[in-house]
Specification:
Blueprint lengths: L1 H7 L3 H19 L3 H11 L5 H24 L5 H7 E3 L3 H8 L4 E5 L5 H9 L5 E5 L5 H11 L5 E4 L3 H7 L6 E5 L10 E6 L2 E6 L1 H9 L3 E10 L2 E10 L10 H16 L28
Parallel strand pairs: 1-9, 2-5, 2-8, 3-4, 3-5
Antiparallel strand pairs: 6-7, 8-9
Helix pairs in contact: 1-4, 2-4, 3-4
Length: 291
């Protein structure tokens, strides 16, 4: 860990020179998931030209390596530096929740630097919990936990979230989730067209906010310059919740996520196999003859 922290002290100009080299290596030599990235972008933007697709794929790799090197860099960045590099467009939404003493659940996606999004958003609220999935490699699991808790945020494993919420009922706690992971096979999930293809989504956040009577909001992020970002917040639901069809709040999240992706398409995590699951036979979204 000492050498990782030493590495993170490199100046930004050197970090981005290294990122450019790594991006070229992943794109042109290793060809890391290049077919997955290209197929995902082509399906998401079918009306764009072949040249646009090719350029977006290439720009994705630079965004991808920037994110991981910037995440390592955050180990030695001060809170003031993060605040300077990540601006907030409408902080008043979170401020209103805090003033009312409300616990909340915030949902984000794998757009550009979601690690800095979590770190910066956590500076606006008290008692922030980040929901995470344990990494199999112990070293990288420890590293990611250290990055994400660097400014005092608490990390909660996804499987423990409901138990921890019940245990802390009556306290203010602000839960943050990156909610666009592909569910495991057999999980209970909600299907909706996402970037032009049906995709399954977890409904756990939707169920939690209705059960616990919590506000639900989306956190968007866009790049304003290399190593510079802007966050914004969109309210998706506020208690008390009237009866609604299952998937209503999840659908609002998916729509907000799509709008954010379309602002800067190269910045989504296209290397993730997000559309690997197939629609169940007979599902209303299935086209004739599709299983």
């Amino acid at each position: 860990m000492f050498f990782i922290k030493l590495f993170s002290r490199m100046p930004f100009w050197l970090l981005y020179a290294l990122s450019d080299g790594l991006a070229w290596l992943l794109y042109a030599v290793i060809r890391y998931r290049r077919k997955v990235v290209a197929d995902n972008i082509r399906h998401a933007f079918p009306d764009q030209t072949t040249d646009w697709h090719r350029k977006t794929v290439r720009k994705f790799y630079t965004s991808f390596t920037d994110v991981w090197l910037e995440s390592l860099k955050s180990l030695t960045l001060s809170e003031a530096q993060i605040r300077q590099r990540v601006q907030i467009e409408n902080p008043e939404l979170l401020a209103s929740y805090q003033q009312q003493g409300l616990s909340t659940i915030g949902l984000a996606g794998h757009i550009v630097n979601w690690e800095w999004l979590f770190l910066r958003g956590g500076m606006e609220m008290k008692n922030v919990w980040g929901v995470y999935l344990k990494v199999e490699n112990p070293f990288f699991d420890k590293l990611m936990l250290q990055i994400r808790s660097h400014y005092g945020n608490r990390l909660i494993e996804k499987a423990s979230l409901l138990r921890e919420l019940v245990r802390s009922r009556g306290q203010m706690r602000n839960v943050a989730m990156v909610a666009d992971q592909a569910p495991q096979k057999g999980d209970n999930y909600y299907w909706q067209p996402f970037m032009n293809r049906p995709a399954p989504f977890f409904t756990s956040a939707e169920k939690l906010v209705q059960k616990e009577e919590l506000p639900l909001y989306f956190v968007g992020i866009k790049r304003t310059g290399r190593g510079r970002y802007k966050l914004w917040f969109e309210e998706l639901g506020f208690p008390p919740y009237a009866p609604m069809p299952e998937g209503t709040l999840t659908s609002r999240y998916i729509d907000a996520l799509e709008r954010a992706i379309k602002q800067q398409p190269e910045n989504y995590l296209w290397s993730h196999k997000r559309w690997k699951h197939k629609l169940p036979a007979g599902h209303p979204l299935a086209t004739p003859g599709e299983a």
